[in-house]
Specification:
About 40% of the residues lie in helices and about 15% in strands. The chain is of the alpha/beta class. It binds beta-D-glucopyranose.
């Protein structure tokens, strides 16, 4: 896939959880559109460094920085390092997330806190650091008409309840209100905050849902478009929301889900 390499020229992006899956595709797509990209990882250092090498060999600019987004000090030092290396931030992709599934009555407090900590508190901590820098620096008209852009990775499960995944669905519902409240508060300061809500995308978070013919058939019954998504489907939406092409879009959720939120069970009438 190709973009005008100047679309995000001169812009500095940070993608959390970028060592695999949707985060990796988002980082690669942003780099192809001309942004310099921080590949944040938690434990997958080698994978992150390989992505950096790939981007660099294609003529782009990237660095890998390790940090647990649920930890305030680690988030602060990640941003400090980014500012030392890249000078500033224009685009934050709040992507890091995980699932720790169990039936509701068996869910431990640790499983609850882990998922809320990474998926929701992590987005708050990273957004707060990014916004502080957007406000300090302000708009640079030659670079972008916004002072900064934040893209929150949500899920169809901000809308679709999900039995057996109460911690995860709650985190995504929280992201929806975090995103909209930030967008409302920060729009006058020329900061745009939006979400992407992916449906079923082939990544390691949901391998069991698509890697056998039976599982895939079952999954496809939930997807009117008739295919499981690929990470690049999301990466392309990230580039659009990060660019001035979406300048008038603020506080919105873009569902990239092959129609999963269209109540496919009702496709043949009630
Ligand atoms: C979850 C996946 C799931 C998809 C659709 C995503 O947010 O992480 O595990 O396949 O939603 O249900």
């Amino acid at each position: 896939m190709s973009y005008p390499p100047f679309l995000l020229q001169g812009q500095k992006a940070l993608v959390t959880g970028a060592s695999s899956g949707i985060g990796e595709a988002s980082a690669r797509c942003l780099a192809r559109a001309g942004a310099s990209v921080v590949i944040n990882y938690h434990s997958e250092k080698e994978e992150a460094e390989k992505i950096v090498r790939d981007i660099t060999s294609e003529g782009g600019e990237a660095i890998a920085i390790g940090a647990n987004v649920a930890k305030e000090e680690e988030v602060r030092s990640m941003f400090d390092r980014m500012f030392r290396e890249f000078g500033t931030i224009d685009i934050l992709v709040n992507n890091a997330g995980l699932q720790k599934d169990s039936p509701f009555v068996e869910m431990t407090l640790d499983a609850w806190n882990l998922v809320i900590g990474i998926n929701l508190t992590g987005q708050f901590l990273c957004a707060r650091e990014a916004v502080r820098e957007f406000l300090r620096r302000g708009v640079r008209p030659a670079i972008s008409s916004a002072a900064g852009k934040i893209i929150c990775m949500s899920s169809v499960h901000q809308t679709i309840p999900w039995a057996g995944h109460v911690n995860y669905a709650t985190s995504k519902g929280g992201i929806d209100m975090l995103m909209k409240s930030m967008a409302q508060e920060l729009a006058p300061r020329k900061i745009r905050v939006n979400s992407i809500a992916p449906g079923a995308i082939e990544t390691h978070i949901n391998t069991a849902a698509w890697n056998t013919p039976d599982a895939r058939d079952k999954l496809l019954q939930l997807i009117p478009s008739g295919r499981v998504g690929v990470p690049e489907d999301i990466g392309k939406a990230v580039v659009w929301l990060a660019s001035d092409d979406s300048d008038y879009v603020n506080g919105a959720t873009l569902f990239v889900d092959g129609g999963m939120t269209l109540y496919p069970g009702f496709a043949k009438g009630g």
